[in-house]
Amino acid sequence: MTERIQDFLRNRREDGRDNEPCLVVDLAVVRDNFQTFARALPDSRVFYAVKANPAPEVLSLLASLGSCFDTASVAEAEMALAAGATADRISFGNTIKKERDIARAYALGVRLFAVDCKAEVEKVARAAPGAKVFCRFLFDCVGADWPLSRKFGCDPAMAIDVLEHAHRHGLEAYGVSFHVGSQQGRTQAWDEALKSAAAIFRGCAERGITLSMVNLGGGFPTKYLKEVPAVKAYGRSIFRALRKHFGNRIPDTIIEPGRGMVGNAGVIEAEVVLVSKKSESDDVRWVYLDIGKFGGLAETMDEAIRYPIRTPRDGAEVGPCVLAGPTCDSADVMYEKVPYDLPVSLEIGDKVLIEGTGAYTATYSAVAFNGLPPLKTYHI
Ligand SMILES: *Cc1c(COP(=O)(O)O)cnc(C)c1O
Question: How many whole angstroms from its chain centre is CA 232?
Fold first, then answer.
């Protein structure tokens, strides 16, 4: 929570514009985060994962700082271009692409594509002849609060075949990628993944194909309730792992931070709509906010991400609450399995601040479910 955000919210309240929940992102924090990544991993190029927060203000700030962009669709690539990035600073990192979208990205100048199977290689070879491809391999994501395993990537042994297939189809077999899982708390996760990456490099070399790039993915955490290691610790651990597995032939590297770039830059202000109990004898209260799973807090699914919540009554005695959203869907409950401690004096109408919400919130909010508008956002 920065002073700039506090001032902004105070003015908004004074102007009576605080009728609906909103997300406020402090761009100065995003700038700091970019520089922290650049210092911690000085030899890696930063490809910001656009999906985390594609606001034009965030993209143009990062473009001006020299960031590259990992995009998952033609629309995201267009947003990065509109923000001032050139096409050579854009990757199409989604392993699941329509062939006509590959062609559109190629027409925009994009020359770097992710693949994880031969069928995708063939699409890229037809629609983006001669482009660079990297093959994503599977990683089990132990230690991540928001795992990205199984859906993307292939077995490391298969990655060698996929890259050879790319080479045979006239593409440049450029390297490999992995994702250690989002909100990864273990700095050593990269060590395990880089062991597989080095094995793929060796396997390709045996077939006469020289790979040159490792895409280290995202996964760098934001501090929510639990402490997390500093970016510097991730940088050191990654550098050690590169040395260990690649010796003195360290490949070019890319990082794709999403959450770690913008998560801590944002705060959502929401309002308590109702505090109630299901029976007089319950000691757990139900607290309903004007934002929930469909209003931007989708990552509370399975209670995976637990946001810090501040109230005007912090410091007072607390008690357990089920925290729920405002919509008429019973799935719209954020925390129930593990109740959330909030002040017992919390009242209807209180404003609460949900911290660490700069990533994966606004774009997840529904268009008009129950007539509720999408989350208002301000980038200051
Ligand atoms: C979502 C995503 C990222 C960003 O992950 P974070 O955990 O938010 O840093 C990076 N790379 C790829 C391919 C992704 O899909």
Answer: 19
Of 155, 149, 150, 151, nearest to 135 (Cα)? 155
Last residue of a domain, one of 229, 262, 295: 262
Q: Model confidence over 253-309: pLDDT tens digits? A: 999 999 999 999 999 999 999 999 999 999 999 999 999 999 999 999 999 999 999
Q: Which of 34, 41, 70 to mutate to test the pocket of ligand 1 (most atoms within 8 A of CB)?
A: 70
Q: Decide if 141 is catalytic.
A: no
Co-location of 116 and 207 in the same domain: yes
C-alpha separations of 296 from 169, 201, 312 in Å: 42, 40, 22
Proportion of the chain in helix, strand, coil states, percent, rounded to 5: 35, 25, 40
**Helix axis angle, 27-40 to 56-64, nearest 10°:** 40
Domain range for residue 322?
3-23+264-379
**CA 169 → CA 99, 121, 130, 133, 201, distances in Å?**
15, 8, 9, 11, 19
Given the CA of residue 144, which atom of ligand 1 is nearest to it? 7
For residue 131, the number of C-alpha atoms closer than 13 Å in the C-beta half-sphere is 31
User: HEC profile for 343-364?
Assistant: ECCCCCCCEEEEECCCCCCHHH
Distance 92 CA to ligand 1 centre (A): 12
Q: Whole-model pTM? A: 0.97
Summarize pLDDT for 344-361 with one digit per residue, the tens: 999 999 999 999 999 999
| Rg (alpha carbons) of the chain, rounded to whole number | 22
How far is residue 26's CA from residue 31's CA, in Å, rounded to a whole number? 9
